[in-house]
Amino acid sequence: METPPTKPPRRAVKYGKDEAGCGLIVNVIKSLGLSETNEERQREKQKIEKEFKKSDQRLNDLVSKHDQQLSQVIPLFTKVSSEINGSREKIHTVKENLNACKRLLQCRREELKKMWTDAVQHKYVLAMLEEINDLRKVPQSVVSYTSKRQYLHASKELTDALTQINGPLKDVEGLADIRSDLMGRRQHLYQRLHEELVSQIYHNSAQDVLSAFQRSNSNRLNQGFSRNITARRSTDRIEANARIRKALQEMAQGVDPTKTEIIEDIDLLDPELSMTYFIAIIVECFGMLGKVPDSIEKLRVGIQTELLEVVRNTTRQLIDSPLISNESYPLLTLLEVIFKQFKSIARTHTTVLRHFSAVVQKYQIVGPPHYSLTDFWSQAQSVLQLLLTDYLDIQNASADDSSQSSFAEPTSNINAFFLRRKVPSAKKSIFKFDKSSTKSTPSNEPNKGHRRNASDASMDNLNAALNASGGKAGANYSFKSNLPYEKQREKLLICTPDQTVITKVYLPLMGYIQEIENFMKCKPGQPCSLHDFIDNYIKDTFLSKGHNSHLKMTIETLSKNQDVWRTIISPEERAALGLTRPILQSTARVEKCLSETKQLIQDLPCYSEELLKTVCSVLRDYRVICNDAYLGIVQPDAEDRRIYSVTWLNDEDISRFLKTLPNWTDLKNSHQRPKHGKRLQRSQYDASEEESPLQIQQRNIREAEMLTSNLGEGGISQQEILGDVSVLKELAILQESMEWFSIRISEFANELRRPLVNGLNSVAPECAAYATVKDGTIKVLTNLALEFDELANTCLLVLHLEVRVQCFHYLRSKPQRTRADAFIDSKDDVLEPDRQVQILTKRLSELDEAFSTTLHPRKTRYIFEGLAHLAALILIQASNYIEQIDQITVKRICRNASALQQTLSNITASREVALDQAKQFYELLCMEPDVILTTLVEQGLQFSEMQYLNALQLSCKARGITDSNTLANYQHKLSDILGAKPSTGVMV
Predict the structure, then answer these.
(1) Are 155 and 186 within 8 A, CB to CB?
(2) Neighbouring residues of 930: CB distance < 8 A, sequence distance ≥ 6
(3) 324-328-332 Cα angle (round to 5)
(4) Most Cβ neighbours (<10 Å): which of 3, 213, 802, 839?
(5) How far, in Å, are 161, 465, 616 from residue 945 at the CA level?
(6) What is the distance between the terminal CA atoms of the chain, rounded to a whole angstrom?
(7) Sign of CA pseudo-dihedral 276, 277, 279, 284
(8) Which of these, 690, 697, 703, lies nearest to 986 by C-alpha position?
(9) Closest of 914, 873, 859 to residue 694, by C-alpha
(10) Do 204 and 309 share a domain, yes or no?
């Protein structure tokens, strides 16, 4: 079989410059054009002809070679051309047939159009009738779904019906009544859905918290607080919860919610799951009904009202609960429950807002922005402020301030009270208390002047003065309801309103405020409104008009009232304070204020610095008052009169010397070492290292010699001593009060160095920064404690010196005649000591009795210890004024020494051997001069050289030895003996 001819390629062949074809022709033209002579052209022509012959020969060879293929192509081409012509004729025939059909269809067009239009009209009428019939069933269906709480189906029915009636059926006049009914049912369903949502957000959330509180506090649930949930099978409960979770997941994925609503019995569902499901359903219904913006705005506007209702319902149920009746501070429980309820409601609001956001995005709703949790907590803070306003009695605080007026009697300054006036001013009293049981002491009472015993003063006088001046001391924040009923907002309170309740609720409140500020994401330095409210109330009302005002009023009353320095605490108060000695009622009052402040600092740690500043100011004022009281005691008369003991104490050398003695340092060190872990009491002291008897004797001798050397030649008059024992008793009570108060301040300052509050982490961070007391404030308190302690030291040193000054006054009077006939020869006169000594012993006994009831025994021992050495030195130095010695004089002085020794021994409970030395000295005067020197050699040095010299002179005079050579001889022997430095004996 022959192969068919192949079709030659139709692509154009491009020739290069050196190939045959067009390129060759171009080259020939160029060569001919560039030829200069004919010979060159002829040569080129011959060349071309030669090439042409070759090409022609080649073409002939190709034709002869493909002759068979050409003969086959030509018949095939003829056959194809004939078939194409036949197809054209067939297409022309089909076209003519189609034109004929078109003409036939156009003939039936009008008839077919009329028939189609009639059919469409009948179909539309039938569909409309069916829709109208369905619309008539919608109200009944909505009622049925609503009664079953199947709100999604009800909303779907209403939405579809309203869409239909306001869309295709909009122009149907007969549907006006149905349209109006459906619009009303839509609004009613919206109200029902809003009530359901509010109930889920507020009532159910709050009730769950309250039920949990009751379950944690009681084994038996109250009928009013628990839900009536009947027992269900666990399989049914598990299945129902699984179906709800699946429905929520499908709703989140965009599945038609009406196909997933399977709730029938909510008692089978978990409360949290049930709440989440209902909220999702209700919000979805709002989206269907087109009420999302309205519902959001209505929820935002009703937050405060609903929260107030929650507070009221919770308060009512807690009042009726038996668990609250045993609570000391039911308001703390109420605040705790309410704040937990608010947090639970806030979590529910978060769920609501999340579903609202999903519905808005799903239905592409355009409207106002959603409210946020910041808006909720702002309203919650307002509700808490209203709640606290009722319990803190803020409305009546201003009424209390306006009703307070100063009715205190005008009194003189404290200095004027303590100063004796030569011409007493007659005061005109407004009231008379002639028949009162506490009648004042007559002004002409002997030996009392304007003084009276501190224990005789009535404590009621001080309390009355404090209350009259405005210091209400605990009753300052009592609840008052003196406003007309119609002006008072109806309140349901769990306890009596009281401004001091802030101290009990402050720390829990600050914990709540810290959580609120975290929820609201408040920046540092920008506290929430509730924080500002609490801060302003504490500063402007509770502290400024309450506690601080009470402190200042107390100090002002103490500075004006004349009885405060006569009144001591009662035995009951002394036992309560753990004291064994009385203190001033004013000091106890100020210390009570200090204790109240200490408690306030524990309760209000963020205001510690402000409280301490007020305390420091009050303590400074009280320090001035106490110093005035001291000056009034020790300088009671005109400026020209001086008290010798005070004058001595003002001498820096004497004061420094007394404070360096071991008895003083031991006394102060024992005060500074209270037993650890126990309340400081006056009966608890740790003794320091005991001194040896020789050290005690030497120390007492040094003190006696120092005081004697500073006395001078003159004596001490009656005007230069504090002759009234009651005055010294007042000074002792002041000393005890100041020392006790100083210790209390020191303890207070030491406690401030520790954390003010346990669990301070519950306080807001910015508040915790202020809860630390500054070192400067603690230093101020420590300095004030030192000032009070210094005043106590001054009082004790004055008492110490005053006893010695009185010894000088009574023992170092002007010398009397020494002859035997200078004394009365009666038996009583011979056996009794001198009158001055009798007065002194009586005075010492009175002072001991006064100090034993007012001072600690160690202080009393400090006052009387060493007094025997001073008395012995005074008696021995009295020999310098005796011109002639005899047996009667010696016996008289020995009786004086024995009387003093007996009195001092009774006081100190030890034999005062120093007075034995005085008797031995005067017995030495009765000896011969040679015997005196022999005794010195045998017994050792017992007296000073001047005292031995004086004894030799008096002994010589008594024996009529007046020769100067003899006296010089005795003096020379005395010097020789003393130069040998005997090793025995103690010099007095």
Answers:
(1) no
(2) none
(3) 75
(4) 802
(5) 134, 63, 57
(6) 173
(7) positive
(8) 697
(9) 914
(10) yes
User: Tens digit of pLDDT for each residue in 4-17?
Assistant: 556 555 554 454 44
CA angle 571, 573, 575 (to 5 degrees): 70
Q: What is the pLDDT of residue 345?
A: 93
Look up residue 294 and give its DSSP letter.
H
Q: CA-to-CA distance for 384 and 379, rounded, in angstroms?
A: 9
The mean pLDDT value for 273-296 works out to: 87
For 3-33, letters b (16+ CB in 10 Å) and e give eeeeeeeeeeeeeeeeeeeeebeeeeeeeee
State the Cα–Cα distance between residues 777 and 323, nearest whole angstrom: 44
Asked if 819 contacts 888 with a C-beta cutoff of 8 angstroms, the reply is: no
Kindly indicate the confidence band of residue 313, based on its pLDDT and cuts at 50, 70 and 90.
Answer: very high
Query: Is the Cα dihedral 272, 273, 275, 279 positive or negative?
Result: positive
Domain count, the chain: 3
Please, which residues have CB within 8 angstroms of residue 40's CB and are 6 or more apart in sequence? none
Among candidate residues 368, 389, 417, the one where a domain is terminated: 368
Q: Tokens 């963020």 correspond to what residue?
A: 606
787 in Cβ contact with 744 (< 8 Å): no
What average pLDDT score do residues 633-655 get?
Answer: 76
Same structural domain, 85 and 137: yes
Scanning the structure block, which residue is given the tokens 């919206």?
Answer: 190
Do 500 and 391 touch, CB atoms closer than 8 A? no
Alpha carbons within 13 angstroms on the beta-carbon side of residue 126 total 6
The CB density around residue 484, as the number of other CB atoms within 10 Å, is 6
Cβ contacts of 489 within 8 Å, gap of 6 or more:
none
**Residues 387 and 509 sit within 8 Å (Cβ to Cβ):** no
Q: Is the domain of 211 the same as that of 348?
A: yes
Amino acid 473: pLDDT: 35
> Do 646 and 582 touch, CB atoms closer than 8 A?
no
Q: Partners of 568 in the beta sheet?
A: 584
Same domain, 191 and 258: yes
Q: 311 pLDDT exceeds 90?
A: yes
- pTM for this entry: 0.68
Q: Are 903 and 833 in contact (CB under 8 A)?
A: no
The answer on 106 and 252 residing in a single domain is no
Q: Which residue in this structure is represented by tokens 């009671």?
A: 636
Which residue, 368, 385, 412, sits at the end of a domain?
368
Residue in the structure block whose two tokens are 């033209």? 29
pLDDT at 788: 92
Strand partners, 584: 568
CB 516 within 8 Å of CB 377: yes
- The DSSP secondary structure of 212-236, one letter per residue, reads HHHHHH-SS--TTTS-------HHH
Measured distance CA(585)–CA(588) in Å, rounded: 5
- Cα separation values, 52 from 23, 257, 841, 936, Å: 15, 95, 178, 183
Question: Among 858, 842, 860, which residue's Cα sits nearest to residue 900?
Answer: 842
SS3 (DSSP) at 322: coil
Domain that holds residue 120: 47-148
Cα separation, 185 vs 141, whole angstroms:
11
| pLDDT digits 0-9 by tens, 485-535 | 333 445 788 888 888 888 888 989 989 999 999 989 888 888 899 999 999
Give yes or no: residues 347 and 276 share one domain. Answer: yes
Tokens of 527: 């506290």
Reported residue count of the chain is 988
536: Cβ–Cβ under 8 A, 6 or more apart, which residues?
none
- Please, how many CA atoms are within 13 Å of residue 339, restricted to the half-sphere of its CB? 20
One-letter amino acid for residue 777 of the chain: T
Q: Per the structure block, which two tokens stand in for 771?
A: 């809860």
Least confident piece of the model among 436-445, 737-746, 869-878: 436-445
Helix (H, G, I), strand (E, B) or coil at 584: strand
